[in-house]
């Protein structure tokens, strides 16, 4: 029992952490929290199952196509739901536009893919029991992604340009950084991160349209707890959430575990609105 | 809900066949009763049939009690187990069926070591199966229509190296499951509700009338692979009954249709022989219910389960 | 009659005409609702009843989402709560049976309390976070409904309540729901057109300015959470009756989305818009029958289109008045003399004093050991280079920042720091460096907001349009019009504020601040962006204000204005006082000249 909790807790936690990173990546260049983050992860699972199981492609081809598909959806988010809204003074519009887009993605998936969870292909076929690939694959994917992102942000010019845009938009533009191009690139990157989350988690969560809404929330909790913009916080928050949730799942049962997670989330947020590791927002006056 | 009202008021139909799940039926039956609309449906929840409240509704299937009796008898008297786990989904049907089943098992002296209503879209069945195993369950009784959830339970059983038997709802024998189990062996040792009319006897033969229906379907290129023969038989019978009622009463008037149905005695359908009366709208006869071996479907009909006479 | 009173009288008739014009669309909809039974069948009764029930909920939610601007996307939670509460009370499976007409108010009460619970995070959380938290509540309620089998029947569900005759027929129930809908329209419109409605919009669009006028965000929000929660729960009870039988999956998140999108399609700050939005969204899946499965998709597309193309929604489309072009050669001609009739003379006993004020942002000393006095009736100028701490000083006095050291006293009383909403009651008003007005509201409404805390009527009285509220409105309207006359903008009273020029917005802020007859007025660069002629007129206005006994602290860069009208001047540099004294002294002060004024 204990081993199962740890295994599935870390796996689920890694998926939630990656969705949190998706949120952060989108936020980093646009200051926008997008409702499409969870949907991207859902599409990672759905595309993966579509390409490899339904269309019979080899695993690698299916993976690459999934990433491309999710990157495209990320770019669409930027075009349709983010850029037009950044121009207006109204603070809340991005919530509505990304919500609308996320709903559209979810409904299309429900109608075209179906409302039943569909199986996800076995990718590598290594391990069984608590060492089954559906448990270690998400954790591995999360680790690799985080390391790759750290390298991107700290060692490459593009990564540092992302950080510049995030920290001081006006200064970055004054320096001549191509803000729009960078933003599109970061949304494509976020799309891929989401796709990786869904693809690596496909065996655990199955290819299911409702995963979008589920991961929207469970992926947001690490961000809220770990502080907006902090990938490290997202990972810690995600793993903690995964372990807590699965412990509740195994010991008590499905319904109460989600109530427990929601209740805990709301309580923590009310106590520390910036998150456990975050800092306050900019001045108001 | 809107659809039912639309059928009654806008399309002005003369009879309604359906709905096909008990949750919806719970909501739509009162509407049809208000409109005195003749209604045949195959939903099993007990409360749907009530000759005083809903004199217009007829059930063309066994009631859930009849199903429950058959499964319980099989578990206690043929499999000879003492400890059972009962699992249902979270729909209206699942909750009612589980409640009735658990109560009946306890009354017969069995021990219900684990019971749960599980959301049918839950992707990982390990927590519940693990809890059932730790509690010492010797058979898992399942009351759900979700083939996805059931297939996941079969796969989890294999991953846990546990050889407990499953018994219960006929959806566990549906052709869809073939595509959802990881290995064909995972589908063994699953025993479901079946019907004499749709079962192969020990010499591998269907009853003559059913064989007729199968031949007709095959000739019309209707695939029976992904579904159950009894569902098709039930549908054919339902339409036939509506047609015969209109024919016999000479009009499409609702009252006449209902009167015809109330007078049926051992009407020879494909699915079974139906008997209705003004005070009995559960038309299926208990002796026609059997248990089948789930993975043995051919043309939607099954082999009888082991130990079943 | 004075010129101002004549203006008031003339405006009353135009106001009555405006009100009647506003009522016409509602009357049309009401008429259509009454006729419906005679031109169609039971099926449309169902649709009509559904639209009415949804509107009962949406009319309350409208105040939260459309007026206060809080994106509560999980409101189906309260519908579920109300539906189950009413059904359980009437079915009598937990406690003795309760007749349905008693069960509805009880459910309303439960809904009100939970409305506050669900809404409370809005006081602490930012937009997206709050939206997510309401989503969380929606899921929690749905899960509890599923799990609490002994009360709610779990997956089996529970029968909805039945009404006694004549409400138990399709059309009888329809009329009952239409009656509820009409009542809720009236109630929410009352709130919208009262000072509470305006305060909500102020909190949404100009929160900082709202605080400066004394509006207390928590109290406002709690009032509407109670109201909207109650309405949603009553709608839930009616919904349960409509469905005749409820299970947890009747309360999908799609319903929440429908409510939410109806408000945004209708347009924020409007009653008619969301009402039309609700009706349209209820009918849409029925009219486009083959598209029923795609209905949520269509709602989402509609929302996206509205957000991108028409953020104002249907209400903006119907706002014909604000399409009329404005004169391009408008001049602002204040009439300072009229001030005497409107603003009462200040008692002039207390001085505003700062002693030893110190504030740092990180390592930067923004204000260093500042001493300052503003006497009643005095115009005190505060000048200095950029970054010298002038606006920061005003912000500390206003209460937006807490000083690390030092005190602010009003006469003998020490002012508590960090509580900007309390300043208005102490008689301190202010304007802002960048005008903070509500673009979507009219000029008149913007000014009326300044006087919000002078209203006597409670929220309940506003809700029910009782006489004391009408008197409040009368008082606020008259005073606002009069003050607009004083600042010279009365011709633009009905115009949307976002159509005005920058200089006009500055004068509106002054009018707004004057609504409370302030003892002290803090003006933050009021002349910035004004033409020379306008600056002259501003000067006359400021002098007239000071003659009423109001003490003014004027932060400015226009040296001429300062030296012309100020009684005393303080010069700041790098947070410290460089010099203080009369304008004549300052003008020739060596250090001031070199650091700031230039030779």
Walk me through what this model shows.
The complex is a heterotrimer of chains A (285), B (309) and C (599). By secondary structure, chain A is mainly alpha-helical. Chain A contains 12 helices and no strands. The termini of chain A are far apart. Chain B is of the alpha/beta class and 309 residues long. Helix content of chain B is 39%, strand content 17%. Chain B has 10 helices and 13 strands. Chain B has a 6-stranded mixed beta sheet with strand order 5-4-6-7-8-12, with helices on both faces. A 3-stranded parallel beta sheet of chain B has the order 1-2-3. In chain B, strand 4, helix 4 and strand 5 form a beta-alpha-beta unit. Chain C is α/β, with parallel strands linked by helices. Among the domains of chain C are: 213 residues, no CATH class; 193 residues, Rossmann fold. Helix content of chain C is 56%, strand content 11%. In chain C, strands 8-9-10-5-11-12 form a 6-stranded mixed beta sheet, with helices on both faces. In chain C, strand 3 and strand 4 form a beta hairpin. The longest helix of chain C is centred in the first third of the chain and has 37 residues. The chains are: A mainly alpha (285), B alpha/beta (309), C alpha/beta (599). At the B-C interface, helix 1, helix 2 and helix 4 of B face helix 2 of C.
Give short descriptive properties of this protein:
heterotrimer; A: 12 helices; 0% strand; globular; C: 599 residues; alpha/beta; Rossmann fold; four-stranded antiparallel sheet; 24 helices; 12 strands; 56% helix; 11% strand
Helix proportion of chain C: 55-70%
What's the β-strand tally of chain C? Answer: 12
Cα radius of gyration of chain A in angstroms = 18 Å
Sequence stretches where pLDDT stays below 50 over 5 or more residues of chain A: none
**Can you summarize the main beta sheet of chain A?**
none
Tally the helices of chain A: 12
Q: Main sheet of chain C: which strands, in order across?
A: 8-9-10-5-11-12
When the domains of chain A are counted, the total is 1
Spatial shape of chain C: elongated
CATH fold assignment of chain A: ABC transporter involved in vitamin B12 uptake, BtuC
CATH architecture of chain A: Orthogonal Bundle
Largest two-chain interface: A-C, 39 and 43 residues
Instruction: Please give the count of helices of chain C.
Output: 24
The structural class of chain A is mainly alpha
Distance between the termini of chain A: 54 Å
Rounded to the nearest angstrom, the distance between the terminal CA atoms of chain C is 52 Å
* SSE series of chain A: HHHHHHHHHHHH
* Oligomer state of the chains in this structure: heterotrimer
The shape of chain A is globular
Largest sheet of chain C: 6 strands, mixed
